[in-house]
């Protein structure tokens, strides 16, 4: 089956499943709907994808934090940069009339992007200094060879007093980030970094990398603030922290 047909079949499956899976076991805080289960996604993630809105664990983590920190975030925030926009958040941002919204991506082959996404390179952003109030860049930097350049660019375009959420997958048992730029093929990257298009595995020094470009970094532990029942019900990844950065 070619990619297009595969996408059509998956889309039909999703449309059917979002009704069949309605229930009370799990709850998606973004679409406010309950389900018997979420759908599997990625490698060994059985309970990850919301059948209704397509949110993933990290999308729901972002949502929980933002709604807790600033319930009127979508009314108060003026200018937003969203790298590699998740569709459900794209819909939320673009329908917020107060927000001047810039969703962008490098446009990787094989991926579909919400209509209105602009082409951009996170290591070479065509925006002036101090332009954005908020930036969301989730699970992008692990794909970018020169991640330090991308971090510098994100810092540059953020206003003083602005903030961002910069999520990456991290192996918390690893102190130092593992990267080896002699590894370039999809197969070798899969073997070395766990995914064919990743160029590193971040360790706990991710925080230091962000601090080096000037960010103040807050590591927010939502997981341990929730009860076991809440963690299960919201379908979150165990121990996933949220990396909130400020430009002072
Ligand atoms: Zn949902």
Q: What would you note in describing this structure?
A:
This protein is of the alpha/beta class. The chain has 8 helices and 11 strands. The strands form 3 sheets. Strands 5-4-3-6-7-11-10 form a 7-stranded mixed β-sheet, sandwiched between helices. A two-stranded antiparallel ribbon has the order 1-2. The chain has a two-stranded antiparallel sheet with strand order 8-9. It is globular. The N and C termini lie far apart (51 Å). The mean pLDDT is 94. Zinc ion binds next to loops.
- How many helical stretches? 8
Order of helices and strands: HEEHHEHEEEHEEHEHEHE
Large-scale geometry: globular
Low-pLDDT stretches: none
| Major β-sheet strand ordering | 5-4-3-6-7-11-10
Using DSSP, what is the number of strands?
A: 11
SS-based class: alpha/beta
Portion of residues in beta strands equals 15-25%
Rounded to an integer, what's the Rg over CA atoms? 18 Å
On the 0 to 100 scale, the average pLDDT is: 94
**Distinct small-molecule ligands in the complex:** zinc ion
Ends distance:
51 Å
Fraction of residues in helix: 25-40%
Largest sheet: 7 strands, mixed
């Amino acid at each position: 089956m070619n990619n297009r047909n595969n996408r059509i079949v998956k889309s039909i499956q999703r449309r059917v499943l979002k009704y069949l899976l309605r229930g009370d076991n799990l709850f998606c805080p973004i679409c406010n709907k309950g389900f018997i289960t979420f759908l599997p996604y990625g490698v060994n993630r059985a309970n990850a994808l919301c059948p209704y809105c397509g949110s993933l664990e990290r999308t729901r983590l972002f949502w929980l934090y933002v709604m807790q920190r600033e319930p009127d975030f979508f009314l108060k925030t003026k200018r937003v940069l969203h790298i590699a926009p998740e569709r459900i958040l794209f819909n939320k941002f673009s329908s917020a009339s107060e927000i001047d919204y810039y969703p962008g991506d490098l446009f990787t082959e094989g991926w579909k992007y919400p209509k209105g996404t602009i082409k951009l390179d996170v290591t070479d952003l065509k925006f002036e200094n101090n332009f954005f109030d908020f930036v969301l860049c989730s699970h992008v930097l692990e794909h970018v060879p020169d991640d330090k350049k991308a971090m510098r660019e994100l810092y540059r375009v953020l206003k003083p007093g602005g903030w961002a959420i910069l999520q990456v997958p991290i192996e918390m048992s690893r102190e130092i980030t593992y990267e080896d730029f002699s590894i370039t093929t999809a197969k070798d990257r899969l073997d070395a970094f766990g995914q064919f298009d990743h160029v590193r595995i971040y360790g706990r020094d991710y925080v230091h990398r962000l601090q080096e470009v000037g960010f103040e970094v807050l590591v927010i532990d939502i997981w341990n603030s929730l009860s076991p029942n809440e963690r299960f019900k919201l379908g979150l990844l165990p121990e996933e922290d949220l990396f909130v950065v400020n430009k002072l």
